[in-house]
């Protein structure tokens, strides 16, 4: 058969499809594509076109290109739209397929601009009416702002007035002006973070489990991009929650909201109900079929008056009219009767009565012969306002739900029919991603339209569906995408108050997921709310003040608080929760053991390093009694113990344990984050024991992998950056060290609070590098601020405060203020000896600096006495050779040399001893040269017989 005949037959098929009334509607075409693409890999995107012929050509052409595709299309149309037109289509499809032909050169209709990024935008309302002045004002406001500092433009108004429809229409009219348009559901922080993560995928940016980090990366990229972009934050609530998630430079931002507080964020547009002529026009256009207006002008006037010109109510009335062909006068009478019923039941005065009456009428219509549809619709009374994935509802198919809802959830066909019914009656919208959305105003009315019994049944159904959809513990099972879907419904469904323990567990799992994804604020909010509520309940032994679930919620609350920088409050909460677990669950219960890791962390943050070591030693022992040695929980407990070893100066023990952990992770295979982090901990142990070359080699080996699996703002990546910088400095690679630490300091400061431990540690490391590079004035500024914050937030006698003071003392001596340096070093030396012991490496470093202060002040005897004491103590502080207790430990990782800081003590002692110290000098210089290499700046300084410093770079807790 010739191409001409093929084209002719294809055009005939297209003309037949155009005679099917429903196919002229955008939403129905989208629904067909969704159903077809579930079984056929159709290569086109149906989201953007408003050209009916082009859309249908795309659908038919894509189906024709797939084996059985045209048959599938015909079956779909025959099932849902039986008519003469579809019979004709079936006949022609058969003719085409018998001839084994395909449409000649039929282009696949793609509805997106080449290279454009487009996401989550609702389908265009083909019946959009009026709003010309509002659209013009929106255009003017967006274009009047500076491209370098565009403020969000907030569209405010009551529910149902068409804010979202207005913005959607703007998007379609002006899509050619942008390279990127991204629609963001903004009712909850989690949905905003999820939408920005999806945008990161489109921008080819690596994403991590930390949604906050990914969001910041996206906003940073957009701010520096030369793209013309538009972000729409739909139905935003509290401006404070989104302040850090909205870009302020680079492109256009539109916010739709009912919250008047957004008015202070930028120019606002008040969106009100339709003008009467707009209402009449909308009803006429919406109910036009085959060129005839189904609702006349006078009827439209009556209906608009009765519905108060509310766009949502008008849309619902038109959908009802098309579905039932009910005369307008009869429809108004039904609305009036339902309004009276609602008023008699004392419904809130701020409800728009037309919507309330419509919802009541819809429920009455479905009940009796479409109970499954009514029950499915009722679910949305307790679901979130954002689009709900049909897949989420289907995952609840195994849940204990009422009949016939259970039948609907267990059948794809029944579910499809029920969703289409809701769409036909204007109760819900289905987007191309197979998500169902019920307007928030309808949801609110729906909840209060249900009877007490119906509300209880519906709430039980919703909770059971969510429980069935819960993937479980995110640490063990992952399921992050499912957690994102569940999140918006936890609060509307009051899952914290669920009458089943599985519902309470869902809350705990989601709070943990939020923490893992970096949403620490919402993790804290959810865990705190749950803990307070559950502490008041006593209907089950796992609830109440000492109940297992309550204690787990408090532990998660503490975890989030600690990460946010509230370490003291977190420690108090965690201590009480853990003691409660010990009392109610037992010392060796899995939950008691797992959460004990937080106790050791709190002890370290408080500066109680030896107490943390003692505690974590026992915790590892207890873990090994309950878990298998290679289990994740055991490896986590051991990793904490290795941190204790580093902080108490047991560096070789830390390295041995870190190596063991790394080997066990490696035996598990792959390069998952835990393995990478284990090797980075080894690098920290190598640094602490003075094996700087080994430390740098490990970091440089694993940094590329770390960069692949994390974003620049990831906390472990930032900590690794600091470790890399301080190790480079100790190796004498000062120029590169300065580059790395300056960048790291800025990144850490942006990621965490100014008072956070990691921020202050980075500032101290930056100061040490600046001092060594010949900029002690800048170093002094950094150290003064850091020490001030340490004193306020950690305490004047905290080891980290005292360690920072040692570095400040070295810097003061460099600046020539010897007396101030001596006073500060004396206080640090005494304080560290009291807190950590006289032979702790931090104390030794403080003593080295103090001895240099005495020497610089001309007090040679005090310098000699202290140097002699330090050299004697350094034998034990930096390791004793087990085979010869009178000899310092040598280590292969240091090229068989003693610890460099032991050599520093020896060289300074020799300088204080003068001629009597030559033997000590030569031995210490040889050891230092062996450890650092003959070209190292420290070795050069020692050869010139200059005193050496022993500054402190505290490892992270």
What would your notes on this structure say?
The chain is mainly α. Among the domains are: 3-98; 117-270, 3-Layer(aba) Sandwich (Rossmann fold), CATH 3.40.50; 276-364, no CATH class; 474-483 and 491-580, Serine Threonine Protein Phosphatase 5, Tetratricopeptide repeat; 796-957, Serine Threonine Protein Phosphatase 5, Tetratricopeptide repeat (Alpha Horseshoe), CATH 1.25.40. It contains 44 helices and 13 strands. The protein has a six-stranded parallel β-sheet with strand order 1-3-4-5-2-6, sandwiched between helices. Helix 39 (818-836) packs antiparallel against helix 40 (841-856). The longest helix is centred in the C-terminal third of the chain and has 19 residues, at 818-836.
Secondary-structure topology with pairs:
Elements: H1 3-18, H2 26-37, H3 52-64, H4 69-80, H5 84-98, E1 117-119, H6 132-144, E2 153-156, H7 163-173, E3 180-185, H8 189-202, H9 211-223, E4 229-236, H10 239-242, E5 252-257, E6 268-270, H11 276-286, E7 288-289, E8 292-293, H12 297-306, H13 311-324, H14 328-344, H15 353-366, H16 371-379, E9 388-389, H17 390-394, H18 405-409, H19 412-424, E10 429-431, E11 435-437, H20 440-449, H21 452-469, H22 474-477, H23 480-490, H24 501-516, H25 520-535, H26 548-563, H27 567-584, H28 590-605, H29 609-626, H30 632-647, H31 651-667, H32 673-688, H33 692-709, H34 715-730, H35 734-751, H36 757-772, H37 776-793, H38 799-815, H39 818-836, H40 841-856, H41 860-877, E12 880-881, E13 884-888, H42 900-913, H43 918-932, H44 937-943
Parallel strand pairs: 1-3, 2-5, 2-6, 3-4, 4-5
Antiparallel strand pairs: 7-8, 9-11, 10-11, 12-13
């Amino acid at each position: 058969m010739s191409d001409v005949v093929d084209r002719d037959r294809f055009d005939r098929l297209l003309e037949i499809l155009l005679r099917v009334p429903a196919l002229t509607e955008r939403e129905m075409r989208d629904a067909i594509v969704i159903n077809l693409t579930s079984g056929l890999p159709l290569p086109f995107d149906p989201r953007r076109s408003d050209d009916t012929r082009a859309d249908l050509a795309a659908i038919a052409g894509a189906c024709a290109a797939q084996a059985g595709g045209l048959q599938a299309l015909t079956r779909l149309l025959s099932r849902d739209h039986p008519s003469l037109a579809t019979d004709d289509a079936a006949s022609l499809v058969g003719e085409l397929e018998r001839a084994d032909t395909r449409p000649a050169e039929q282009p696949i209709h793609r509805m997106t601009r080449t290279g454009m990024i487009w996401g989550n935008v609702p389908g265009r309302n083909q019946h959009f009416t009026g709003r010309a002045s509002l659209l013009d004002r929106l255009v003017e406001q967006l274009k009047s702002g500076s491209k370098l500092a565009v403020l969000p433009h907030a569209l405010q108004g009551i529910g149902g007035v068409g804010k979202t429809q207005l913005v959607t229409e703007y998007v379609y009219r002006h899509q050619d002006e942008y390279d990127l348009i991204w629609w963001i559901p903004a009712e909850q922080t989690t949905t905003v973070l999820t939408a920005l993560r999806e945008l990161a995928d489109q921008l080819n940016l690596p994403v991590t489990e930390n949604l906050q980090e990914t969001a910041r990366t996206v906003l940073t990229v957009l701010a520096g991009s030369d793209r013309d972009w538009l972000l729409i934050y739909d139905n935003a609530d509290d401006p404070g929650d989104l302040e850090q998630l909205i870009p302020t430079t680079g492109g256009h931002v539109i916010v739709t909201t009912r919250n008047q507080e957004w008015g202070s964020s930028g120019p606002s547009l008040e969106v009100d109900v339709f003008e009467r002529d707009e209402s009449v026009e909308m009803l006429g256009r919406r109910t036009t079929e085959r060129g005839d207006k189904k609702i006349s002008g006078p009827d439209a006037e009556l209906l608009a008056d009765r519905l108060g010109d509310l766009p949502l109510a008008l849309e619902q009335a038109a959908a009802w009219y098309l579905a039932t062909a009910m005369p307008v006068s009869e429809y108004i009478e039904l609305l009036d009767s339902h309004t009276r019923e609602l008023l008699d039941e004392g419904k809130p005065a701020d409800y728009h009565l037309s919507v309330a009456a419509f919802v009541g009428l819809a429920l009455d219509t479905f009940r009796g012969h479409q109970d499954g549809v009514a029950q499915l619709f009722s679910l949305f009374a307790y679901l979130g306002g954002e689009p709900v994935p049909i897949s989420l509802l289907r995952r609840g198919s195994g849940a204990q739900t009422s009949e016939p809802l259970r039948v609907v959830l267990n059948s794809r066909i029944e579910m499809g029919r029920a969703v289409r019914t809701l769409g036909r009656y204007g109760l819900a919208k289905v987007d191309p991603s197979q998500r169902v959305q019920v307007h928030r105003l309808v949801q609110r009315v729906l909840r209060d339209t249900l009877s007490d019994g119906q509300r209880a049944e519906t709430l039980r159904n919703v909770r059971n569906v969510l429980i069935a959809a819960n993937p479980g513990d995110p640490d063990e099972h992952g399921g992050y995408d499912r957690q994102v879907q569940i999140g918006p419904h936890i609060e509307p469904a009051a899952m914290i108050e669920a009458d089943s323990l599985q519902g309470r567990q869902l809350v705990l799992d989601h709070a943990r997921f939020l923490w893992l994804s970096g949403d620490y604020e919402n993790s804290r909010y959810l865990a705190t709310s749950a803990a307070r509520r559950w502490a008041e309940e006593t209907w089950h032994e796992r609830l109440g003040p000492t109940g297992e679930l309550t204690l787990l919620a408090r532990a998660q609350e503490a975890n989030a608080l600690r990460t946010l920088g509230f370490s003291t409050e977190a420690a108090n909460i965690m201590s009480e929760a853990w003691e409660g677990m010990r009392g109610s669950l037992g010392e060796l219960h899995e939950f008691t053991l797992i959460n004990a890791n937080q106790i050791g962390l709190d002890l370290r943050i408080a500066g109680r390093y030896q107490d943390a070591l003692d505690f974590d030693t026992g915790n590892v022992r207890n873990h090994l009694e309950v878990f298998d040695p290679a289990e994740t929980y055991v490896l986590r407990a051991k990793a904490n113990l290795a941190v204790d070893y580093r902080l108490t100066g047991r560096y070789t023990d830390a390295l041995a344990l870190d190596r063991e952990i790394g080997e066990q992770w490696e035996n598990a295979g792959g390069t998952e984050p835990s393995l990478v982090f284990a090797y980075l901990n080894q690098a920290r142990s190598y640094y602490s024991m003075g094996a700087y070359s080994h430390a740098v080699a490990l970091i440089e080996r694993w940094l590329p992998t770390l960069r692949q699996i994390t974003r620049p703002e990831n906390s472990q990546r930032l900590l690794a950056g600091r470790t890399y910088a301080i190790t480079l400095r100790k190796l004498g690679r000062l120029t590169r060290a300065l580059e790395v630490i300056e960048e790291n300091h800025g990144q850490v400061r942006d990621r965490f609070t100014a008072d956070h431990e990691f921020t202050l540690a980075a500032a101290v490391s930056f100061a040490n590098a600046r001092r060594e590079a010949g900029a002690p004035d800048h170093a002094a500024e950094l150290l003064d601020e850091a020490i001030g914050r340490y004193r306020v937030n950690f305490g004047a006698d905290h080891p980290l405060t005292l360690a920072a003071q040692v570095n400040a003392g070295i810097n003061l001596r460099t600046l020539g203020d010897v007396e101030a340096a001596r006073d500060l070093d004396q206080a640090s030396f005494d304080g560290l000896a009291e807190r950590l012991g006289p032979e702790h490496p931090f104390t030794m470093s403080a003593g080295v600096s103090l001895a240099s202060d005495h020497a610089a002040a001309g007090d040679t005897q005090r310098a000699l006495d202290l140097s002699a004491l330090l050299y004697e103590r350094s034998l034990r502080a930096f390791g004793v050779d087990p085979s010869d207790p009178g000899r310092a430990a040598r280590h292969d990782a240091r090229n068989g040399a003693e610890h460099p800081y032991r050599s520093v003590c020896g060289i300074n002692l020799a300088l204080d001893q003068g001629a009597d110290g030559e033997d000590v000098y030569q031995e210490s210089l040889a050891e230092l040269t062996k450890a650092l290499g003959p070209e190292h700046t420290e070795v050069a300084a020692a050869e010139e017989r200059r005193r050496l410093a022993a500054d402190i770079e505290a490892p992270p807790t």
